[in-house]
Structures are given as C-alpha cells and as structure tokens.
Amino acid sequence: MAAAFTEQEKEIIRAALKKSAQECIPTVGVRGATVEHLTKSAGISKGAFYDFYESKEHLFFEVMEDWHEVLYSEAMKVLRERTDLSDSDRAAEALLRVCAILEKNSLMDFLENDLPYILRKIPPEALQKHYHSDDVHIGEILRKSGLRLTQPPEVACDAVRLLFLSLTNRRQIGRHFPQVLELTVRSVCSRLVSN
Questions:
Q1: Which residues contact 101 (CB under 8 A, 6 or more apart)?
Q2: What residues contact 142, with CB distance under 8 A and at least 6 apart?
Q3: For the chain, how are helix, strand and coil distributed in percent, rounded to 5?
Q4: How far apart are CA 69 and CA 63, in angstroms?
C-alpha cells in the first residue's frame, strides 16, 4: 500500500473504489470499466490504484464477495427473525428478499456475464481461499436455518439457483414478472421445505 495514505484514507479510498465498481456493474460491467474511471471517483491516480488492487478484476472480485455476504446475511436475517411464519413461508420470504436485492443492483447480469471473466483473471490460490460456489453458501444457510428439507440438499440448491436465474428473464416474462416470481418461489418452497 502507498505510504502516503493514512489507514483511514486507505479505508475511504477502498470504499470509494468499491462504490465506483458497484456503479459500473449495471452500466458498463467489468470489461467496460476502466481503471481511470474507477480511480476518478476515488480521487486517486491510476498508479495509486495498483497500491490497493492488483487489477480491476481483483476489485470486482472483492465487490462480488461483499455482495455474497450481503445476500446471505439478508437471507439468514429473514430466516431468524420471521419465526411467526411457517418454515416454507420463511424460506420463501428469504428467497424473495435476496431476489429483490439481486434485481435492484443488477447483480444477476453481473454474475452471469462478468463473474466467469473475473474468475479466469484471479489466481487459483486466491480462488481456493476465498471463492465458494453458491452450493456452499446455500447449503450453509440451509444448515444454519434449521429448515427441514423434503428433498436432498443438492436438489434444494439447484432449485434456489433456478429461481435466481429466472431473474435474467424478467423482460421475456413481462409485466407480471413480480407476481410470477412470488408464485414460483412460494410453490418451490412449499415443495422443498417441510412445515
């Protein structure tokens, strides 16, 4: 890291770089983002960027990890707090919350289009240490939630992934997408989770 920055300045710059990267996700994506663009809003030079990240892909990888944390912590929050609901309804509410976050932040396009590119650019040892597939995260949530499944965990993970992937077809489904998504999520949860 650059010696010219205090620890507080480094934190502020990292946050600004991440914010800039998040703003690029729905507009230009990873490939369209330039280091110059990312650094401009952080108020640092292009050369200083490399004191914080090895590449723009490393920055977006860290942003992706942050989003994973947000998504899974929001799902767990719903599962912990909504004890007034049946287990299948709690699961549905958790999935709908995650879907809303994914949609609001254009994350499905990012995960489908940019994530494979990012993963090719990150060294294997970093991936092994930091990156886990959705199956690992979804499986962990299922274990921590105490939900009793009526299907094997692998089937539940695949069903959740299918629900998330449906977000990429919002335009094809049309104006009834929110209702169709809720209907589908609730139907799937009622078949996957024992009440």
A1: 70, 71, 74, 107
A2: 149, 153, 156, 157
A3: 80, 0, 20
A4: 10
The DSSP string of 44-95 is --HHHHHHH-SSHHHHHHHHHHHHHHHHHHHHHHHHHH-TTS-HHHHHHHHH
Residue type, 49: F
Instruction: Check: CB of residue 173 under 8 Å from CB of residue 103.
Output: no
The label of the residue with tokens 């069903």 reads 159
Q: Which domains does the chain have, with CATH numbers?
A: 1-53 (1.10.10), 56-194 (1.10.357)
Q: Would you state the structure tokens that stand for residue 158, as one six-digit string?
A: 């695949």
pLDDT per residue over 90-130, tens digit each?
999 999 999 999 999 888 888 888 988 999 999 888 888 77
pLDDT in tens, 62-92: 999 999 899 999 999 999 999 999 999 999 9
Q: Which residues are CB-neighbours of 124 under 8 A, at least 6 positions away?
A: none
